[in-house]
Design brief:
heterotrimer, A mainly alpha, B mainly alpha, C mainly alpha, B: mainly alpha, C: mainly alpha, Four Helix Bundle (Hemerythrin (Met), subunit A), 79% helix
Chain lengths: 234, 249, 205
Amino acid sequence: MNTTDQRICLWLVPAFAALLLVAFWIFPGFFPPMSPTMTAEEVAAFYREHVGEIRASMVIVNLCGISFIPFFMVIVVQMQRMGNPSRAFAYSYLSAAASGATLFALADLAWLIAAFRPERDPQLIQLLNDFAWIAFVTPVGFIIAQNLCLALAIFMDTRRVPVFPRWVGHFNIVAGLFMMPGALAMMFMDGPFAWDGLLAFWVRIGAYCLYLAVMFFVVRSAIDQQASEDRLAA
Amino acid sequence: MTRTATVAARPATDGRRLRPKLDQWICWWSIPIFYNLFGLIFVYFTKIMPPPSPGLTQDEIVAFIRTNATNLQIGFVLLALTLGLASLSSGIIVVQMRRMSSARVLAYAYLAVLAVAALPGCLFCGFMFVLAAFRPDRDPRILVLLYDMGLLSFVGSLGCFVIQYLVFAIAIVLDKRAIFPKWLGYMSIWGLVTELVALPSWIFRGGPYAWNGAISFWLGTAIFVVWEVCLVVSLYGAVKRQPLDEILA
Amino acid sequence: MNAREARPGDLGISASRHAGREAKRELPGDVDVWVFVIGEMVVFAAYFAAYVVDRGRNQELFLQSQQLLSPGLGVVNTLVLLTSSLFVALSVRATRTADARTASQCLALGGACGAAFALIKSFEWYSKLRVGLTISTNAFFMHYYMMTGVHFFHVVLGLVLLTILWREIHHTDAPRAWVIESGACYWHAIDLLWIVIFALLYLMR
């Protein structure tokens, strides 16, 4: 089977990730992250002052935010190559990836809508800002489910030469654990579990970025392995 | 294309002879039906297409919602009932994409991306207007908020469709079996570009690049309609030409 | 179904259809690419029309804003893109005479010019943004950023295409002329569109 399209989907990741990193850099509310304790007036002032950067950065996120889906689909296809009893985990992974991306899209929409009419009532801007942050930081369940499915599939891969080495399974579980604190941001206004806190923001985002980077190389090896198997079989 | 170890012995059938590809034809018919409903909902009932201007004053927006409240509700009840039909069009496109010589990964990506798009790109708009129409005597500033949320998400949800057009174009261009004509793949690039030119709708309250503007809305919609018609026609051809032994195997 | 191995840069159109076309030269490149290119032109025409209409309504504003552009950079960019088109055309000619080495060299040079265009354009935007001229500054700059931005996207797409063409020439013994021609067709179209954009934004008084 031709691996060209898998490679294209793979390389979309660094291309779009570079753009997303630029966007996250431009967005004035990330470094340092905005605090949930800001009053409505402060939030509204923030949006008024930084309207241009917020729109520019979030428009880039709008365009690029869904671009990891093809990459996750490569993982789905690789999972289907494994020596598993059934395909269940691959389809579960697909479903979780789609659900997770939906919330990311909504978070981005909320930031952009907040920046659309800066003269809006500050309480409403704060509402949109809350929506965006909570949608961005807290729904970690889908990523965790993805990672769990992949880890279990790897452990159950009975192929003599497994599609992914076993340590990738452990890595997925650990990465998922590091992302779990994000969910608690629904409850805390400050401290490490708030949406600007060490665990819910920095560790969570850092873990996700590291996860993507590592998985990029892992998936690339898997595709290479598939290509050489196909050549031998042909 | 052979699949190893996944084709089990066919189970015994119950003797019925169904029309070949019946499931695909049902899915195919869902597409024109869905888009006619879409037109009925968004153009006739709710008047979201063409969208009212982002430059309207608060009073004008409130007037739009209050005078239109019943129609908004009827239209979006219909949408709530029928948006699921879009999944059928996903289904048949994925089946045909899987026939391509390019790997399954692009078909899965198409499926996943459109599953994502349904909410922020379509249903969310409906929800926002339904919330507005549900209690039209809300504070006008809240009605304006709901109005913005509905129309911005509808015109400005770009990323999902960028990836949809991208994977579709790549799949067609790489496909050696010519399931779909090559020009449809190139046309998908036009669709991708319309998403790019809808970017400014997040900024402007008037002019050609606003959410109701000549470029961001009208040109974008025109290209989408042309693309969709070409897709439906190409899909018809693809299903018709699909050799029976591919299905009965 | 077919045992033909995938090659890098394989645009996937069935060989038999184009074997026939090689015999009688009706149209350089592929019909599908022409549909694409003509469609792109029509779409860009819409952007141009929107610009002209807005300009008609705000002539004073547009004239003043035009002064803030850098015509020097515009001219350089035009020359760079024209040069790249020249190289791509030379590459097509070399492919027809089966001179793979010249063809791939010319493509590489054409691509390098295209990349230079992208860099210069990025620098131009940066210098405008630094003095506070953004997309929301006024109607003129809205059109400026949008038209040059969409064109930029097409240039990037073209660069990807040129890379695929380069691999087609480099990695196969008998590069298919119609593949190179199709890509060249697209690249020339982008060049043509830039000339119109340059004229509208920088020159038109």
